[in-house]
Write a structure and sequence with these properties.
Elements (H helix, E strand, L loop, with lengths): L23 H16 L5 H9 L14 H9 L7 H15 L3 H17 L5 E2 L5 H6 L26 H14 L4 E6 L6 H9 L7 E3 L6 H8 L7 E5 L3 H4 L5 H12 L7 E7 L1 H8 L10 H7 L3 E3 L6 H10 L4 H9 L5 H5 L2 H9 L3 H16 L5 E2 H7 L6 H5 L5 H9 L12 E2 L14 E4 L1 H10 L7 H10 L5 H10 L3 H13 L4 H12 L3 H13 L5 H13 L3 H14 L2 H14 L4 H12 L4 H12 L27 H12 L3 H10 L5 H13 L3 H13 L4 H12 L3 H10 L33
Parallel strand pairs: 2-5, 2-6, 3-4, 4-5
Antiparallel strand pairs: 1-3, 7-9, 8-9
C-alpha cells in the first residue's frame, strides 16, 4: 500500500475493472458497477461494507449483506455475482455516494443480473460426448461390423493419424492457446473428414464446448443462436455447404461467423467444417457476371481449406496394419479396401454399392429416384411419397407388371436395412427429429452420402423419367422448387421447368416468376413472357419488370399497344417508386410518340411547356440502364450469348492448331472436354463431326450433353437440325424444349399468371432465386 509524501494515512488501493468479453449482459453489468464505483470516488471495501451495515433496518432497498470479498467480486471479478441482492446493495450505496438515482441504478443492475443469468452458452461440454453422441450429433459415419468379432469393440474403430492431421492439430492448439480460428476440411464422401475433426477437438482442455446447429434447419439455427456462442466453443459445421451455400441465409451466416471470430471478447472460438470438393469449388469460384452470392463466405474461408485425400499413403497403410491387430474392422478394411480407400470401406461404401447393385427392381427404383432427386437439386430430406411416386418411371412395362401388390413394403425393407450393410448406414435412412423440431406430415429419408456421390458420377447422362418431375410438383420441398426448375431448364425440359416455377410461385417464391418469364422470353414466346413480367411488377416482385415489358414489346413489336395501356394504368394507380418505374418504362416505349407521352407527363407533373416536357421525357426514357437481355441464341452469332462464356485462350491455342495439323480426333476430344464451359468449344466439336459426315454421332453426343445439364446443347442441336434440313423441328426445339425421353416436345402452353392462386400464401420477396 502506497503512502503520500506528507506521511498521512495509507490510501486504499483502487479496485480493478472487471475484464468481461462475453456475454454482453454480464459485460454491461460489470461496466455499470465500475462506473458507479468511480463516480463514488472509489471508496474502499471497508467503506462500502460500512455503508451497507449502517443502513436503517427499515430501508428495504438494501437487502444484501455482502462481505468485503463479495463486494470486491461484485465490482472486479469477471464472474456474475452469485446473489442479486448483494449486487443491488453494492449498487445502491455507490449511487448514494455518487448522488445518482439509486432506484434507477438498482433496476438496471437487477435486469442485467437476470439477463446475464439467462444467457447460457450454446452447445454441450466436449467431455459429455460418448460414441453414441459422436455418431448421432456430430454425424460421424458408423463403421461396418465384422460378425461376432465386434463384441467388446467401441462404436468407432481405432483412429489412424494421417498427414493432414498435423495441420488440423495445429489449428486446434492455436485455439487452445486463446486465438480464434477456422478450418474447412475438403474431400470426397466418407474420406474421414468428420472423424478427423472429432479426434482433434477431443484433446481440448476442460471447459470447451461443442455446438452443432442443425434444428429446425441448419443455417437459420446458426443465425438464431450465434449471439450465444461464448469463449472456448467449437462451432461444428458438418456439411458446411448447408450453411455457407444457402441461397437465403448464406451471406448472413458467413458475416455472423466472421464477426464472432474477430470478437476478442469471445475468443477463443474454433469453427470446424467439412465439405465436398464440388461444393468447395462452387463456394470459392468468383462469378464472371451476375450477383456474387458467396462473397462473404469466400472471405470467411479464404486460405482456410484443409484437403483430405481419398486414399491412405503407403506409410499410413502400415499404421492401419498395426492398429488392425487390436481392431478387426481395420484389419478387414486393409485386406479388402481398394486403392487405399480405408475410410470409405469402413463407412460401408462397398456394402452400399453391393446393396444397390443387387437390389430387386422395386428397391432399385427408390435408390435411383433418390440419386436423381439429389443431383437435380432437391434437399437432403426426401419425402416418402416423392420416391414412391417417381419409382414406376424407372421400370419397364414388364418389370412394372411383375411387381406384387405390396411392392413398396418389400422395397423399403431392402433399402432401409442397415444390418445388410453390416452396421453402416442403409442406402436410405431416416434421422430421428431432434428436440424442438416439428414432425413432418410424412416420413422423409436421406440417401447415404456414398451412394449420392456414386449417383452423381454414374447417372450424369441418364435420362430422368417424367414420373420424377411429376412427383416434384406434388411432393418436393417447396424451398427446392426453383432449383429443380433451373435443373429442368438446363436439360431442355422447358415444360417441366415451367411447372416447377409455377409451383414455386404458388408456394410463395415470387422470384420464380421472373425466371419463368425469362425462360419464355428466351424461347421467343413473347406474349407469355410479357404476361409473367407484368405479374412480377403487379405483385411487387421486381420494379425492373416495368422496363422489361417496355423493352421486350418494343424489341419484338408484339403487344406494344397492350403494353402502353398497361403501363399507363400502372402510372395512374401507383405511387412512389412503382409509379416512377412505370413512368420511365412508358417514356421509353413512347419515345417516338411524343403527343401521347406529353399528355401523360403533363397530367402527372402538371407541366405545360413543350420544351420542358420534351426534356422531361428524355430524362425519363433514359433514366435507368438498359434492361439486361436474356441469353439469346441466334444462328448468326459467333459465340452463344454475351452472358455465356466464349472461347478462352487455352481452347483456341490447343484446339485450333490440332485442326490445322489434321489431328481431327484429338481436336474433337479437346473441344468436347471443354464444352461444359464454352459454347465455342461445343460448336467446334459439332462442326468437325459434321464435316466428317458423322452428324448422327454429333446428335447423340449433344443429347447426352443436354441430359447432363449443359443447356448450350439445346441451342446448338437446333442449329444442327436447321442446317440439315429440319427447320420446323429446330424451331420447335427452341420454343418448347424436349420431353423427358429426349424427343422434341410438342407445343405446350405455360400456365398464365391469372390461373395461379396465391390465396393465403405468404409471398417471399427476399428469396434469391
Amino acid at each position: 500500500m502506497s503512502r503520500d509524501t506528507g506521511g498521512g494515512p495509507a490510501r486504499p488501493r483502487q479496485l480493478k475493472r472487471a475484464q468481461v468479453g462475453w456475454p454482453r449482459p454480464l459485460r454491461e453489468l460489470k461496466d455499470l458497477l465500475y462506473e458507479a464505483y468511480l463516480a463514488a470516488r472509489a471508496p474502499s471495501l471497508d467503506e462500502i461494507a460500512a455503508d451497507i451495515a449502517h443502513v436503517d433496518a427499515e430501508d428495504l432497498a438494501v437487502k444484501g449483506t455482502p462481505s468485503r470479498d463479495t463486494i470486491r467480486r461484485c465490482i472486479s471479478s469477471p464472474d456474475r455475482p452469485p446473489s442479486q441482492a448483494n449486487a443491488v446493495s453494492v449498487a445502491i450505496v455507490l449511487a448514494r455516494r455518487a448522488a445518482w438515482d439509486e432506484e434507477d441504478l438498482a433496476t438496471r443492475v437487477r435486469d442485467l443480473w437476470t439477463e446475464a443469468g439467462m444467457h447460457t452458452p450454446v452447445g454441450r461440454s466436449i467431455a459429455e460426448y460418448d460414441d453414441r453422441l459422436v455418431l448421432d450429433d456430430l454425424e460421424v459415419h458408423p463403421a461396418l461390423a465384422v460378425g461376432t468379432a465386434e463384441d467388446g469393440l467401441g462404436a468407432l474403430p481405432a483412429y489412424v493419424r494421417r498427414e493432414f492431421d498435423e495441420r488440423l492439430d495445429a489449428m486446434v492448439a492455436t485455439a487452445a492457446d486463446g486465438r480464434s480460428g477456422i478450418a474447412i476440411l475438403v474431400g470426397g464422401s466418407s474420406t474421414g473428414k468428420t472423424r478427423a475433426c472429432w479426434e482433434a477437438v477431443r484433446s481440448l482442455p476442460d471447459g470447451w464446448r461443442l455446438w452443432h446447429p442443425v434444428e429446425p434447419d441448419r443455417a437459420p439455427a446458426l443465425i438464431e443462436q450465434l449471439s450465444q456462442v461464448g469463449p472456448r466453443t467449437v462451432v461444428w459445421l458438418n456439411e458446411a455447404q448447408h450453411y455457407l451455400l444457402n441461397r437465403e441465409h448464406g451471406a448472413h451466416v458467413a458475416a455472423g461467423l466472421r464477426e464472432v471470430l474477430n470478437d476478442p471478447g469471445r475468443a477463443p472460438v474454433l469453427v470446424l467444417g467439412s465439405i465436398w470438393h464440388r461444393h468447395w469449388d462452387e463456394l470459392t469460384a468468383v462469378p464472371s457476371s451476375g450477383p456474387d452470392r458467396y462473397a462473404q463466405a469466400r472471405q470467411l474461408v479464404k486460405a482456410k481449406d484443409l484437403p483430405v485425400p481419398g486414399a491412405f499413403t503407403a506409410e499410413e497403410l502400415k499404421a492401419v496394419g498395426i492398429a488392425g491387430n487390436g481392431d478387426p474392422r481395420l484389419a478387414e478394411a486393409l485386406a479388402r479396401a481398394e486403392q487405399g480407400q480405408i475410410t470409405q470401406y469402413l463407412a460401408g461404401g462397398p456394402a452400399l454399392l453391393e446393396r444397390y447393385r443387387t437390389a430387386p427392381d422395386a428397391a432399385r427404383t427408390l435408390i435411383e429416384a433418390a440419386m436423381d432427386a439429389r443431383r437435380l437439386g432437391h434437399g437432403e430430406e426426401l419425402p416418402l411419397a416423392l420416391l414412391e411416386a417417381a419409382g414406376p418411371g424407372y421400370l419397364t412395362d414388364l418389370q412394372w407388371d411383375a411387381l406384387p401388390d405390396n411392392w413398396q413394403r418389400g422395397a423399403w425393407d431392402h433399402v432401409t436395412d442397415s444390418k445388410a450393410c453390416r452396421g453402416a448406414r442403409s442406402p436410405l435412412y431416416r434421422r430421428r427429429p431432434r428436440g424442438g423440431s416439428s414432425a413432418y406430415e410424412q416420413p422423409r429419408y436421406h440417401l447415404a452420402h456414398y451412394l449420392e456421390q456414386h449417383g452423381r458420377e454414374t447417372r450424369r447422362t441418364s435420362p430422368v423419367p417424367a414420373t420424377l418431375w411429376d412427383a416434384f410438383i406434388d411432393f418436393a420441398a417447396r424451398e427446392d422448387l426453383t432449383t429443380l426448375a433451373a435443373a429442368a431448364q438446363d436439360r431442355g425440359l422447358m415444360r417441366e421447368a415451367a411447372l416447377c416455377y409455377v409451383a414455386a410461385v404458388r408456394a410463395g417464391h415470387r422470384r420464380a416468376a421472373w425466371s419463368l418469364a425469362a425462360m419464355l422470353e428466351g424461347g421467343n414466346r413473347i406474349p407469355e413472357a410479357l404476361r409473367w413480367y407484368r405479374w412480377c411488377a403487379e405483385s411487387g416482385t421486381d420494379e425492373e419488370a416495368h422496363a422489361r415489358v417496355a423493352w421486350l414489346a418494343d424489341r419484338s413489336g408484339i403487344e406494344v399497344a397492350e403494353s402502353v395501356r398497361w403501363l399507363r394504368g400502372r402510372v395512374e394507380t401507383n405511387a412512389g417508386t412503382g409509379a416512377q418505374a412505370a413512368l420511365e418504362a412508358l417514356a421509353y416505349l413512347l419515345e417516338d410518340r411524343r403527343d401521347e407521352l406529353n399528355a401523360v407527363l403533363s397530367r402527372h407533373y402538371g407541366v405545360d411547356d413543350a420544351t420542358e416536357l420534351r426534356e422531361l421525357g428524355d430524362r425519363l426514357a433514359y433514366a435507368g440502364d438498359d434492361p439486361y437481355p436474356v441469353d439469346y441464341w441466334d444462328d448468326d452469332e459467333l459465340h452463344i450469348g454475351s452472358r455465356m462464356s466464349g472461347p478462352n485462350p487455352f481452347i483456341l491455342w490447343v484446339g485450333d492448331p490440332l485442326v490445322h495439323e489434321g489431328r481431327i480426333e484429338e481436336a474433337i476430344r479437346h473441344y468436347q472436354w471443354f464444352s461444359d464451359e464454352s459454347a465455342y468449344a461445343m460448336r467446334q466439336a459439332v462442326k468437325l463431326l459434321e464435316q466428317a459426315g458423322r452428324q448422327e454421332e454429333a446428335m447423340v453426343w449433344l443429347r447426352q450433353e443436354l441430359t447432363s445439364g449443359n443447356r448450350r446443347a439445346r441451342w446448338i442441336t437446333a442449329e444442327l437440325l436447321a442446317r440439315t434440313g429440319h427447320g420446323p423441328e429446330a424451331e420447335r426445339l427452341r420454343r418448347y424444349g424436349v420431353e423427358p425421353d429426349g424427343s422434341i416436345a410438342q407445343p405446350w402452353a405455360a400456365t398464365p399468371p391469372e390461373q395461379v392462386s396465391l390465396t393465403n400464401v405468404a409471398l417471399t420477396a427476399s428469396d434469391d432465386d
